Amino acid sequence: MNVTQPNKDFYKYFRFIFVPIVFLGFYLLAFLVDPFRNWADYFNRSATQITIEWAFVLLFCLILTEINLILARKLDKTLPWVMYPLQRFFTQFIIQIISTTLFLYIFLRTSIYIFEGDSGLSNVDHLILRQMFVVSLLLSTLISLIYTGNFFLQKWKDAVLETAELNVKTVELKQIALEAQLESLKAQLDPHFMFNNFSTLSALIAEDPALAQHFLENLSRVYRYMIINLNKNIISVEEEINFAQAYFYLIKIRLGDNVRMEIDVSEATLKKGIPPITLQLLIENAIKHNTASRSKPLQITISMDGEDRLKITNTLQRLNYNIPSTCLGIKNIHSRYLLLSDHDVDIQETSDQFIVKLPLLNL
């Protein structure tokens, strides 16, 4: 049996703690087995006689304890409780009876021979022998119970510790997996962002090179801002709105007054958090799938929905033709919220509006 250091320490000091208890138990059981014995005369003897008796009883208890410990340790290796509980119980009980009987016979015969010689063996009261056997067997059972009880207690403690360690490792592995998945989702934003804005830049180069140059300068500032904050899992609403305004400025260069954005949030909302680059994805999604003209401008509004949600609304002005879409932006936002909180994004669509409600997170 593999034992831990606390178990080894217990076995090391077991006899020093338990032998005195067995010693007291010996006399207690002797009284219970034969309460009619004249115990009042027990101390009507010389101190030498009492001391010698106590020394032999203490030796008896020590040897009996050692026998039971050796027996239990041997059976732990050949017949462990966990694998063979019934076989272990009956085997240990039978061996205890046999070993206790043999030890009691040898110990009593030796003790009587030392004090009284050969003549003392024939004068032994058989009732006392039977009482001694019962007391010895009860003591052996008590020693075995305590040893076995400690064994199961240690197993229970080890199981509890192992379960706790497994739970901690499970949480750690889950956290590592979530972080890896989150990093993968954030990595998707980089090419997605650049692809759409390079397409815009490409169109501007042909239409207005000077404006394209101005657009590129602002794009570099926005991209730098994005790189800094993309490494964060959560960013304040205030920082995200500042980024959205900078990004919307790029949109205004190309579309002018065909696109409008209005922001109306409280100071308390600005201190809350959302995943970074979320507003940029929603603005980009609104522009990609809707028409925007001077007569019918695309209106984007960032406002509050109660105290725990940020509402992003855009007028629904579907294009007359279908644009292939992977829905990467919306899926990305969904996935990041599921990883970062217990709340999901709420998406609603009416006849004239597309509404996205983002749960506000604690920073």
Question: Strands, helices and their partners?
Answer:
Elements: H1 5-33, H2 47-78, H3 85-116, H4 126-207, H5 209-230, E1 235-236, H6 237-255, E2 259-264, H7 267-270, E3 273-274, H8 278-289, E4 298-304, E5 309-315, H9 328-340, E6 346-349, E7 353-359
Parallel strand pairs: 2-4
Antiparallel strand pairs: 1-3, 4-5, 5-7, 6-7
Helix pairs in contact: 1-2, 1-4, 2-3, 2-4, 3-4, 4-5, 4-9, 5-6, 6-8
What does this structure look like?
The model is unreliable at 1-6 (pLDDT under 50). Helix 2 (47-78) packs antiparallel against helix 3 and helix 2 (47-78) crosses helix 4 (126-207). The protein has a 5-stranded mixed beta sheet, with helices on one face. Strands 1-3 form a two-stranded antiparallel sheet. The chain is built from 9 helices and 7 strands. It is α+β, with helices and mostly antiparallel strands. It has helices at 5-33, 47-78, 85-116, 126-207, 209-230, 237-255, 267-270, 278-289, 328-340; strands at 235-236, 259-264, 273-274, 298-304, 309-315, 346-349, 353-359. The longest helix has 82 residues, at 126-207.
